[in-house]
Amino acid sequence: MNRDRQVPEDGTLTHEVVELRVHGVSGTSAETLLDHPVVIRVAGDDNAAFYRPRPGFGISDRPGGLKIEAYRWGALTAGATVRTLSLLFLLPFMLVNLAVWARPATGGAGGLIGPLCRLLAATLTAAFVLSVVGVSIDLVGWQCVGYQPCRAGRGYLAWLGSIPLGPRLAILALAPIAALRLLWWLGARSSRAFEAFPAVPGQARDALGEDRIDEPGFWNDAIVVRRLLTLHVAVGLGTLDTILLGAQIHLRPTPVVYVLFGAAWCLLAVAAVLLCRPARAVDEGPGRGPVDMRGVRRLRQATTVVTLLSLAYTVVPLEPEPPHGQLPGYEGAVAALIAVQAGLLIALTVTTWHQRRRSRAGTSLWLGGLAGPMLATAAVAAAYGFAAALVYRVADFLDRSDIPNPARPVRPGAPPLEPPVSYRWAALAGLAAIMVVAIAALWRIVATRRRRRRLAEQIVRRDFPDPPPEALAQRTAVREVVARAAFTEQLGPIFVVFLVLSLLGVAIVALDLIGIGPSELSRHLARTDGQATTNLALATDAGIYVIGLVAVGIVVLGVVSYRSEGTRRSVAVLWDLGTFWPRTVHPFAPPCYAERAVPELAKRVSALARKGGVILSGHSHGSVLAAATLLQLPPEVLPRVALLTHGSPLHRLYSRLCPAFLGDDVLHEVGDRVGWRWINLWRDTDPIGGPVFSAHWPGQPPRVPPPAGTVDRRLRDPVEVTVPPDDTVPPRIDQHWPYHTDPQYEAAVRQLAGRLDPDLLHLGPDR
């Protein structure tokens, strides 16, 4: 109904319509978003707010009755440099949290994928604690302080040498506890700041169906995060307890320490069982939490008691023989944890592949639907990359750059600092993965260049069929931009290579369970000589340095991304994807800004729609927020709402990566809910956005018939390759930004405003 109605030629409307603009990544200013020099805040706060042009300032030629408003949410993901760096180092936790949202669309609740991801997330917390334990308790307290050459010239370590071994280990055990407390504080602070914003009542869902993004409580996971915080702290403290008590069993085995050791393992087992429970299950009755919340509270109390008893038992000053080698049980714990992670990753891959075969997705998916295992594997790889860099750099500092290996025998009198062999494996696997993936990326760029240029040539030939000789250079530049923008579709094989290499790397690292390192395996299997073994040891050293450089690069990237708008936009594309989804897997992941943005947008749109019409306009990632908002609106509001998306990654990225939550069926549901009052603007030069329903390349028919097939509208970019008569340079190539300055954008706004039924709008808020 009213699909062909347009705004009258005089530019006036008989009803008020508000165009509500939602920006994408990188925190665009409200002035830029509104194209107005002076704006005022009409709702919200410093973190996220709604703005309108200030009346009486600047020039506006919008037709009467068509208002404009902007929602600026960029402060939810931006901040000081310190916060930016802290978020970057939470990358492993973010990746594993994202993995569960990349599951195939099967129509069910995800089966074993959720429990497997939550268990894998718990192992990342344990790995984090083990890395801090390796630095504080193993390297410093056990291996270094006991040797005079290591303490020489280091007054900050000399005082530890005068403390008996037991109290020394207990004191240094405060370091991993403090690290866990820091993560707890970050998670709780972000939850209070950005999450727990109640959603407006939405449409009901089938309780037996898939966990859907239109569920009214989908964006309110504060209770789930608190529950996961408690469980992960219990896992972290339980890991610390088992390491401390395992060392005590080696030093002074008594019935008490065996009882405490068994209790610590029981707590870890209980935490694993609770993590397998559904994350969103609730008790019957209003306002109740997860069904196992009481069990979680009891686990927290038991963990506190066991940790205090473990520290009390450790602090008893019973000096054994001088320690030598590594902390007893530490290397085995690292290797066993990696073996558990390898098993979980294999199980997750098999489960995802099985569910992919039953998937209802009607479009091609990244990695054949295995994006979840790829993200989980990347999380494990990043975690051990950071851990290996931390442990080896500290060891390198403590023994004054003399870490023993086959290439560098131990010097007489030097402290024999020995980090776990697993970290050497991780360094070697990381170096191999970086090199192979880099080669695969270069190969993919070269291998697809000819095809991408050929298709780009078809596009520019259609847009600029007969350019004059002086415009050929600009036409070639446009072709290259189009060809580069198409590389996004060519990333699949690179991710496949990374997934295979990472799975092999994690499995090989588990060889440390039987005490086999890279050099030993080389000697036993490949029959290499001493020189080859030395070269392999040097390669592992190089891997450690490369991982360390990557960590330094992340620090530099964090600073640069904060100060440079271009770099910040590139980093934010990936970062905003990971922090868009609720934290239902790992509570230490960066906060979910959508848990505030979506309910806040839904509330604002509902209030505006009760006074007139609303055109929800989302650019780039803002189009994802707009689609999620429409799925949360009450049914009585939807007839007064239209959707305008531009530079949208809804299909190009989200539909293929998260088919269970934003797949093609969900996008069709968005169109149905707004009566297909939806226009999507896209450009061939845009490397991020693209069509939602139609084909991407010329000559291909739309994937679906109308009305979905009429949503997408391609914009020619640039408008011309020749120099205009009143200018000295050809029109610029806009690519991903801006869209709202294009004349066709204004035409789309007016067309959508005309599609909103005036009869419905005139009914007012009492409809």
Walk me through this protein's architecture.
The two termini are 19 Å apart. This protein has 767 residues and is of the alpha/beta class. The chain has an eight-stranded mixed β-sheet with strand order 2-3-4-1-5-6-7-8, sandwiched between helices. It has helices spanning 30-34, 81-88, 91-99, 113-144, 148-151, 155-161, 165-172, 174-194, 222-251, 255-275, 293-315, 330-357, 371-398, 421-463, 472-485, 492-509, 518-525, 530-563, 565-578, 594-609, 621-630, 650-657, 659-662, 664-673, 743-755, 758-762, and strands at residues 17-22, 39-44, 49-53, 66-72, 613-619, 641-646, 678-683, 712-715. It is built from 26 helices and eight strands. Keywords: Membrane, Transmembrane, Transmembrane helix. This is Integral membrane protein. It comes from Micromonospora gifhornensis. The chain crosses the membrane at residues 85-104, 116-137, 157-184, 228-251, 257-278, 299-318, 330-353, 365-392, 425-446, 494-516, 536-560.
What's a quick, concise take on this entry?
The protein is α/β, with parallel strands linked by helices and 767 residues long. The protein is built from 26 helices and eight strands.
List keywords for this structure.
767 residues; elongated; disordered C terminus
Show the helix and strand layout.
Blueprint: E1 17-22, H1 30-34, E2 39-44, E3 49-53, E4 66-72, H2 81-88, H3 91-99, H4 113-144, H5 148-151, H6 155-161, H7 165-172, H8 174-194, H9 222-251, H10 255-275, H11 293-315, H12 330-357, H13 371-398, H14 421-463, H15 472-485, H16 492-509, H17 518-525, H18 530-563, H19 565-578, H20 594-609, E5 613-619, H21 621-630, E6 641-646, H22 650-657, H23 659-662, H24 664-673, E7 678-683, E8 712-715, H25 743-755, H26 758-762
Parallel strand pairs: 1-4, 1-5, 5-6, 6-7, 7-8
Antiparallel strand pairs: 2-3, 3-4
